[in-house]
Design goal:
This protein has 339 residues and is of the alpha/beta class. The protein has one domain: NAD(P)-binding Rossmann-like Domain (Rossmann fold), CATH 3.40.50.720. 42% of the residues lie in helices and 17% in strands. The protein has helices at 14-26, 66-75, 90-95, 98-118, 152-171, 193-202, 222-235, 252-262, 288-294, 302-315, 317-325, 328-336; strands spanning 4-9, 30-36, 56-60, 80-83, 122-128, 175-180, 182-184, 207-210, 216-221, 241-244, 249-251, 270-273. A 7-stranded parallel beta sheet has the order 3-2-1-4-5-6-10, with helices on both faces. The protein has a 3-stranded mixed beta sheet with strand order 7-9-11. Strands 8-12 form a two-stranded parallel sheet. Helix 2 packs parallel to helix 4 and helix 6 runs parallel beside helix 8 (252-262). The longest helix is centred in the N-terminal third of the chain and has 21 residues, at 98-118. It starts with a strand and ends with a helix.
């Protein structure tokens, strides 16, 4: 068996931890080295079960640290990189943009430089459909859609994408970029729309909805995203971009009302609040390229997957309560030092 030494960055976050748990449960030919800074959205509890696997290693650290990244590449003989690490919350990027550019742009550059020095075999840059900007009532984002980011978050991700592709064209670093629509599922940090609405509903708190609530997002269950990333890693062509989406557009207000209905809560909990600056109206992904070229297709229907997601938050109250209360921080500081 040809074992692959794969550096996965941001593997304690929502999508990264789901990806690691999926990979380590389905295959034993990957040696996974997870590096995560354990910022507010990084949670090692997400990796219970995976952390005991013999082909899993964890490094607490910052991807902007050149010396640390060089050390990790040497120590673990890294041959592949999947870069999930990112500051990802649009609202936080509006309040303070610097950390987004530091992590998302400089951090990606540090990883690319190390990948170039060590001649790795593949670098998968995990990106977002938000780099394309906003759509009107019609049309879909394709891989040829010009980048037009409208927030500090999305502009930092667009810059990282361009940096990654420039390393392919200039140095021959074998880069592939994926751009995915909105993910949902277990382990998502409570600041994001779906978990926030579930948790507030359970606590009978107001559910804040920006503007008129008619902003449209294209939703994909996190496991479908994971499987697409695995396929791009294995078979994606270097120098290419692959859009990943499940073609499930939903208005924000309809998501909120659906969650309230599932939990038998009153619509009176909805509270319309001032819209955030530069709020993109609509995202929608054309994923025909990855479907036609690599044979991927989404497996989860939204109706069943949103029920699975709601059930997970109902059954894992301790997980999100610890996050909300911040009680997990002391444990991490004791185990790994203050980040």
């Amino acid at each position: 068996m040809n074992t692959k030494n794969i550096l996965i960055t941001g593997g304690a976050g929502f999508i990264g931890s789901n990806f690691i748990n999926y990979i380590l449960s389905s295959r034993d030919d990957w040696n996974v080295i997870n590096i995560d800074k354990l910022t507010y959205a990084g949670n090692l509890e997400n990796l219970k079960g995976s952390e005991k696997k013999k082909n899993y290693s964890f490094v607490k650290g910052d991807i902007t640290n050149n010396e640390l990244i060089d050390y990790v590449f040497k120590k673990f003989s890294i041959r592949y990189v999947i870069n999930f690490a990112a500051e990802s919350h649009v609202d936080r990027s509006i309040l303070g943009s610097e950390v987004f550019y530091r992590t998302n742009v400089i951090g990606t550059n540090v990883l690319l430089e190390a990948s170039r020095r060590y001649g790795i075999e593949k670098f998968v840059q995990i990106s977002t459909d938000e780099v394309y900007g906003s759509l009107g009532a019609d049309g879909l984002f394709t891989e040829q859609t010009p980048l037009s980011p409208n927030s500090p978050y999305s502009s930092s991700k667009a810059a990282a994408d361009m940096a990654a592709l420039s390393f392919y064209h200039t140095y021959g670093v074998p880069v592939v970029v994926t751009r995915c629509s909105n993910n949902y599922g277990p382990l998502q940090f409570p600041e994001k729309l779906i978990p926030l609405m579930i948790i507030n509903s359970l606590n009978n708190k107001k559910l804040p909805v920006y503007g008129d609530g008619l902003n449209v997002r294209d939703w994909i269950y996190v496991t479908d995203h994971n499987k697409a990333v695995e396929l791009v890693f294995e078979n994606g062509k270097t120098g290419e971009v692959y859009n990943i989406g499940a073609s499930r557009e939903m208005k924000n207000i309809d998501i909120v009302k659906l969650i309230l209905s599932k939990l038998d809560k009153s619509f009176n909990l909805i509270e319309y609040v001032k819209d955030r600056p530069g709020h993109d109206r609509r995202y929608a992904i054309d994923s025909s390229k990855i479907q036609n070229e690599l044979g991927w297709k989404p497996e989860y229907e939204f109706e069943s997957a949103i029920e699975k997601t709601i059930d997970w938050y109902l059954n894992n109250k301790n997980w999100w309560e610890r996050i909300i209360n911040g009680s997990y921080k002391d444990y991490y500081d004791q185990q790994y030092g203050k980040g």
